[in-house]
Amino acid sequence: MSAIRSILVHLDAAPGSVDRLTLAHALADRHGAHVTALYGKVSRSPQANYGYSAAAALRAAEQDEAEHCAARSRLRAALEDRDTRCTWCEVAGDSLAHGFAAEAIYADLLILGRPAAPDEIGAAPAGFVESVLLQSSTPGIVVPSPHRQETLGERVVVAWDGSSAAARALRSSLPFLRLAARIQVATWARQKPAAPFSGLDVQTWLHRHGVTAGLHFREPSSRVAADLATLAGEEQADLVVMGCYGHSRLREQVFGGITRSMLTHLPVPVLMAH
Predict the structure, then answer these.
(1) Coil/strand/helix, residue 256
(2) Integer Cα distance of 131 and 164 in angstroms
(3) Helical spans, DSSP H, in 147-256
(4) φ, ψ dihedrals at 142, nearest 5°
(5) Is 194 within 8 Å of 231 (Cβ atoms)?
(6) Which residues are CB-contacts of 274 (< 8 A; sequence separation ≥ 6)?
(7) What pTM was computed for the model?
(8) What is the pLDDT of residue 191?
(9) Rounded to an integer, what is the distance from CA 167 to the centroid of its chain?
């Protein structure tokens, strides 16, 4: 990605939306981009039981609408003092993931929330983040909640394994890397990943793009996610860059995997691409 000109941010009734919107506007100011805020309304579906009635369904619907109205008001208020251009859109119901992924095709960068807990009210449904990243092929920054960092992209850790997914994430991160003060590339392999014929390695490739990075060369490990989180903490990183779903999506769903661990547990934003 040579430049960031269009940022699409996912908003919902969960508390983390305000932090995502704030981050989207900060990045837009830095990169001269336009923000599209897409608010997704997801209603709760109470399970039927012996005491369930039409009246209970009506009360649940009314409570849902009240929560979404309050969330919209908070988010629209956060836009009032912004100079950055922003387009407000909404999508509702089962079409949320499909609609967001279709809109994401026209964005340079996505701002997404960390996958929500099953009982988190107002949040996107399970699998939303993964579906959007897979379907749109647009790079996204997954933001933890709460997000209180004052910077993003000044101190970057890159997870590198020489895969096509890692390469797409690295290319997508270039607008951030060119502005970063410190970049560390971490790789877990028995041999340093390099191009098979030219021998070009990641440090040289980055140098050709005007980016200087250090290299953390580590032995293969079954605890890559934990090691990466530790390294991010040691480096005081404010952004981690990595490819997502290096194995099949089914394998990730069944066995967890590095991608899901990083999405769920890493305390700093993660730039991912598939």
Answers:
(1) coil
(2) 19
(3) 164-172, 174-177, 202-208, 224-234, 249-255
(4) -95, 120
(5) no
(6) 133, 134, 137, 165, 168, 243, 244, 245
(7) 0.87
(8) 79
(9) 17
CA 201 to the chain's CA centroid = 27
Question: 31 near 82, Cβ under 8 Å?
Answer: no
**In whole angstroms, what is the distance from residue 149 CA to residue 237 CA?**
10
Vertex 156, ends 30 and 257: CA angle to 5°?
Answer: 120
The residue-averaged pLDDT of 132-152 equals 90
Of 214, 226, 215, residue with least CA distance to 189: 215
Element (H, E) at 241: strand 239-243
Q: Which tokens hold the place of 232? A: 């991010």
CA atoms within 13 A on the CB side of 209: 20
- State the helix-helix crossing angle for 128-136 and 96-104, rounded to 10 degrees: 40
Which of 56-70, 72-86, 160-174, 211-225 ranks highest by mean pLDDT?
Answer: 160-174
pLDDT of residue 74: 80
Band (pLDDT 50/70/90 cuts) for residue 146 is confident
Low-confidence winner among 40-49, 148-157, 166-175 (lowest mean pLDDT) = 40-49
Task: Scan for tokens 């404010």, then name that residue.
Answer: 238
C-alpha to C-alpha distance for 129 and 140, rounded to whole angstroms:
9
CB 126 within 8 A of CB 115: yes
The Cβ of residue 5 has, within 10 Å, a number of other Cβ atoms equal to: 14
Q: Stretch 6-35: mean pLDDT, rounded?
A: 93
Residue 124: which pLDDT band, with cuts at 50, 70 and 90?
confident
Q: What mean pLDDT comes out for the span 53-72?
A: 69
Which of 139, 244, 228, 246 has the alpha carbon at shortest distance from 184? 228
Residues 42 and 247: their CA atoms lie apart, in Å, by: 30
**Burial degree of 237 (CB within 10 A; 0-12, 13-18, 19+):** buried
Beta strands 239-243 and 214-218 are: unpaired
| More confident call, 152 vs 48 | 152
